[in-house]
Amino acid sequence: MYTLSANQYGKAEIHLVRIYRDSPRHEIRDLTVTTSLRGDFEDAYTTGDQSKVLPTDTQKNTAFAFAKTHGEGAVEDYALALGRHFVDNDEFAREATIEVLVDGWDRVVVGGAEHEHTWVRRGPERRTVRVDAVGTGDDQRLEVTGGVTDLVILKSTGSEFHGFHKDEYTTLGETDDRILATSIDAAWRFGTFPADWDAAFDAARAALVGTFATWHSLALQQTLWQIGQAVLDAVPELAEVKLAAPNKHHFLYDFSRFTVEPPIPNDNEVFHADDRPYGLIEATVTRS
Amino acid sequence: MYTLSANQYGKAEIHLVRIYRDSPRHEIRDLTVTTSLRGDFEDAYTTGDQSKVLPTDTQKNTAFAFAKTHGEGAVEDYALALGRHFVDNDEFAREATIEVLVDGWDRVVVGGAEHEHTWVRRGPERRTVRVDAVGTGDDQRLEVTGGVTDLVILKSTGSEFHGFHKDEYTTLGETDDRILATSIDAAWRFGTFPADWDAAFDAARAALVGTFATWHSLALQQTLWQIGQAVLDAVPELAEVKLAAPNKHHFLYDFSRFTVEPPIPNDNEVFHADDRPYGLIEATVTRS
Amino acid sequence: MYTLSANQYGKAEIHLVRIYRDSPRHEIRDLTVTTSLRGDFEDAYTTGDQSKVLPTDTQKNTAFAFAKTHGEGAVEDYALALGRHFVDNDEFAREATIEVLVDGWDRVVVGGAEHEHTWVRRGPERRTVRVDAVGTGDDQRLEVTGGVTDLVILKSTGSEFHGFHKDEYTTLGETDDRILATSIDAAWRFGTFPADWDAAFDAARAALVGTFATWHSLALQQTLWQIGQAVLDAVPELAEVKLAAPNKHHFLYDFSRFTVEPPIPNDNEVFHADDRPYGLIEATVTRS
Amino acid sequence: MYTLSANQYGKAEIHLVRIYRDSPRHEIRDLTVTTSLRGDFEDAYTTGDQSKVLPTDTQKNTAFAFAKTHGEGAVEDYALALGRHFVDNDEFAREATIEVLVDGWDRVVVGGAEHEHTWVRRGPERRTVRVDAVGTGDDQRLEVTGGVTDLVILKSTGSEFHGFHKDEYTTLGETDDRILATSIDAAWRFGTFPADWDAAFDAARAALVGTFATWHSLALQQTLWQIGQAVLDAVPELAEVKLAAPNKHHFLYDFSRFTVEPPIPNDNEVFHADDRPYGLIEATVTRS
């Protein structure tokens, strides 16, 4: 006997751009949206009967429509409206998850002035929004998680790594001055909703970046713990911060092997930025 | 007050190649290994004390060493040995996860004969192995999950999609003959260990591919349910199969818009293979 | 004074799938097509007048249409028809280039028999076709270039590298037994057209792969020279072969640094497959 | 008879990071370097004799060493020094090409002040430098080409496309107000060397971006022609500008198909950002 346990379906990576043309100074919003529905969908699997299945194509259409009809507030407001739409209006959907990646665009400066309708893409960092909408009416639960992904950050000093555990396979040297570089994925879950989603995002991101820069690091683990606390400090509405950070290794290049005259000093200035493998440190910091 | 909740660390994407040179007919194994440890590592976060932290560099060294010292059996045997090594020998690690992606290589055929030491890469499909090792001694729990990722598969008929739920945003037409294409990620968890890991893999993969091909599909959901059951049927040691399948849309190209003479028939032969967005269907099938 | 020199325009990466449904045993062809036109298009640049510019959207439509109307022969025949269409029928286009990447699909085997309408993707290797069509009528010149891209190939012995030039920055050790791995991009230009495009491709590819396997290599350079000659030998209609081959380094992992007992032998079996940087060797071999 | 015609070899994608630690306010330079040598290297191909071949590993070592010993000036100075090194010091190399991709990093701002040793990655845009060094002594020719790659730029109005050539496959509608988005690859070749490489880069990039923003576009072709002229105007030392620009299509989403009340206006605000295919427009503008 077999059971259909966890299951969901939706539309992934809907890439939509909303332009705001109310004044000659346009605004742009660039979203990649993924929708997922969970609910009374077992028949679609077990008998092939699709009569309760709202097509993923319809979910896509709705994501585009809501960019127009529910696009005035923050991205979080848009995602909440979209998530609520599915659980409130689709009698067979009991839970909806809306995930949004926000690509950044910087307004072009021409002759010292910001241009009204031209931007260049800013990356690789992207803001993230996730909404989980569960149930309807008074029992409805709405959860919002903000964050950033691919925030690549590097400090050229202020990072040590030594005193670690060793075994018969350990060859790593200890260091009291290394490059610390990572690409942070952070997801912060709101316990209550803030008055201003964008201000909350700005405060959380500033705490993250500022702590990475200023905390003298004994390990990436310690830096993550400090970042988690700083983000929770900065945004009182947050309940929890999840952090995943690859240790993007920068190996000091060893010039002592060369016979060039005069010898080139190994003075901590030239590094090989390696791709793989990389350390991967993960931590969740929770408000108690 | 803040709490460090879930946390782990390890080395990701260790790309190692093992050659077996015992006879002139060499063998090759191409693995991308990720290790993660969980245990008594809070101090590394909260005080920066690394005395319990086995460096990720050491984990990498160990993964390479075990490719030599524990590389004779199946990939699952290698991953089990590596996972057990960490929990058995590192007094601070209580849990270890080893994830392996296996790249396939096909032996080159020259003049009708298989070459002894040359291969071409086969992809994009990759076999996957995951081992979770928890605890030591009699209480140790070892869990093995096999699978495939990026198994891109397409059928040119034998797939319908109609009778679905509609709302005011629905524009999709119904069809009783479409291309069904996906890139399957499957992860099958073993309840007990099979006598032959490779035979189990082959049986599970054959069930997956065969069911996709032969099941007349009323929806990708239904196909996944059938695949899940077939895989469990094929390998009695399996407890559960998780499936995630993007619906890689192939849109019939509409020639009726052209004024070319004679008109080109829209006879279900020429399709635009679109990248994004895509439907994403997920299901877990469990042996009860 | 400024001049508009080289210029062209077209549609890139048109991903089309053609199914052949003439019998229950379907066939599939998966093409990614790029078109480029050169001709009397200066006004589009200098004055913005588009009256001579066939939109890239039209080029795309034509690529799809020709997949139906000119899809019966080899991919080369399709590309020739498409390229000739633009120079023969568009009075402003004097030259057209059609580039095609062909994704491979392997028919699924179920119960020992090939399935009639289901395939799995074979990669990463792709066959390539390029057609250059210049002029019309008797002066028309049609050039066809075949090839492969991303043919990842590895031999575990039969490769040396020593006796090289050294300077004060040289640290590389010499070796008489190393892994040789690369990802070959080859483009072979036809001087005359063969009777059977597919047979010519098969012969060229077999010569390439067979030579890589069987030639005892003193350097990747030498292997490329041998491959170029072998391909020209195999297909008499070819005038020239261009080869580009990254040296995908596999570094022997040094176990002598570990203190584990018994020591692990460094016996040329376990390698780190590095991503970047890589050597890049390029050569063109021409029939004189 | 076969001839070895064009051939070269080198090291690709050497990813090096140089930190300048002369004061507490560090500086960072992040380079991905590719070297290629051409010269007296035929024996390496035809006989396997490597005695004239400076290993690509040595080229890599040299690229790292020069980041320290020749890293004080602009990236162009570094690339010139590296290119000249090979042709001046390696008796068998007659030509060297050095290609550099420069990743941007923005200094982190903490509490309103720029941090001294922490940066976040800025992308996807990258500055490019290419040096071709040919020959030695008085006959030596040094050519420098600057540029940008992956400069993703979008304007939400000020772009039309109409009056184009039509044939029996044309279905595209005309528009007098569309989104124009592209990812510009530009390469500008210097006829003479400027006093300040960085100032020249800034002027060229500003001309490119400013022209894209302010020129009312009748086609991407016309915009490229205007950009080419503006860049040549801005930097008198430039001889030529090569531009390649994909037309990253943003399709207006058609809300008229929905039955939602009230109807959603199709007012040029919500677009589907499509991945493939894309128009690809290329032009070279030369100072006469």
Automatic annotation (TrEMBL), chains A, B, C, D:
Function: Catalyzes the oxidation of uric acid to 5-hydroxyisourate, which is further processed to form (S)-allantoin.
Keyword Oxidoreductase attached: yes
Native organism: Gryllotalpicola kribbensis
Signal sequence coordinates: none
Lineage: Bacteria, Bacillati, Actinomycetota, Actinomycetes, Micrococcales
Name used for this protein in its record: Uricase
Enzyme class: oxidoreductase
Catalytic activity entry: urate + O2 + H2O = 5-hydroxyisourate + H2O2
Keyword terms: Oxidoreductase, Purine metabolism
PANTHER family on file: URICASE
Pfam families associated with the record: Uricase
